[in-house]
Amino acid sequence: MSRAAERLRLLINHLDRPSSNIAAAPTSAQTSTSTSTHPHRLRYTFDNDLLTPEQRLFYEENGFILIKNLVSEEDIDKFRNEFERICRQEVKVPGLVVMRDLAIVKSEFVPDQKAVSKLQDYQEDPELFRYCALPQILNYVECFTGPNIMAMHTMLINKPPDAGKKTSRHPMHQDLHYFPFRPADKIVCAWTAMERVNRQNGCLVVLPGTHTGTLQEHDYPEWEGGVNKMYHGVRGYDPQHPRVHLEMEKGDTVFFHPLLIHGSGMNQTQGFRKAISCHYAGADCYYIDVKGTTQENIEKEVQEIAARKYALDNEITFTDTWAFRGRLVQGERISL
């Protein structure tokens, strides 16, 4: 038996019930008063026989797990074709947010994919949303959320070649900053490389183990060249914390916890670095009021954008914007 498997076996043997009944404990971001009756309980993963003991232990300790060659080349090529159709304005998708890099916006507009840095909220596009419902993706998602699964946030990232302003960087952040629902431990992101991703074209950078902390204050970093809209960053994280650059091949998929601090560097190549992702949550998660918390700044920004987009003044709430986007992909829709 491997060292990781032996450690996991010993951990499970501390429990008062069989390992098949292990459940995720409440997250520290949900409440500071919750306590676990089983202090050795595996907190971040469910036992459904898909993750190996080594994989479960790795995720528990690091907050992410990389699965090689999970999405087929055929599917990725179909997603790329749909992205290009949207960029050429051949298809209109309700609710879709088309984002452009700050440096591109200030340059001459090009009506194709070179003008687009990200598609957000593609849940009404049948082809792109098919990614969120891929059985091989959901099989892994269930290890973190349980069997009732909501797709809450969808993105296709088209990181452009940096125009010399360093605006293609994404500051270090925690995804939970954007989400008014809990518990954090039943939220997970699936992020799939649509081509080879490396340090040269701006791969993901993660700080292993930071998922065990709490949600930190975020705001726009004061960077030269500026920073793109909605790209908030963590204030005051330890820059000396060990980091991992997630170099991936086409079809590789990383699953990570919403409190994991991560970001990405500049794209120093001439090509566009593409990835497709979806944030999932257990359907029994619930909405919270973020007023008076560190998330109040993102709530205000999202409400202002939604009000302009739908001409609703301030009638739309932060929770409304998420309830509108969330879609059931497996099981029963419970509270989200």
TrEMBL record:
Pathway: Lipid metabolism; fatty acid metabolism. The keyword tRNA processing does not apply. It comes from the Eukaryota. Its EC number is 1.14.11.18. It catalyses: octadecanoyl-CoA + 2-oxoglutarate + O2 = 2-hydroxyoctadecanoyl-CoA + succinate + CO2; dodecanoyl-CoA + 2-oxoglutarate + O2 = 2-hydroxydodecanoyl-CoA + succinate + CO2; 3-methylundecanoyl-CoA + 2-oxoglutarate + O2 = 2-hydroxy-3-methylundecanoyl-CoA + succinate + CO2; 3-methylhexadecanoyl-CoA + 2-oxoglutarate + O2 = 2-hydroxy-3-methylhexadecanoyl-CoA + succinate + CO2. Pfam families: PhyH. It is an enzyme of class 1 (oxidoreductase). Keywords: Dioxygenase, Iron, Metal-binding, Oxidoreductase, Vitamin C. GO terms for biological process: fatty acid alpha-oxidation. GO terms for molecular function: L-ascorbic acid binding; metal ion binding; phytanoyl-CoA dioxygenase activity. The keyword Iron applies. GO terms for cellular component: peroxisome. Its cofactor is L-ascorbate; Fe cation; ATP. Belongs to the PhyH family. This is Phytanoyl-CoA dioxygenase, peroxisomal. The lineage of its organism: Eukaryota, Metazoa, Chordata, Craniata, Vertebrata. The gene is PHYH.
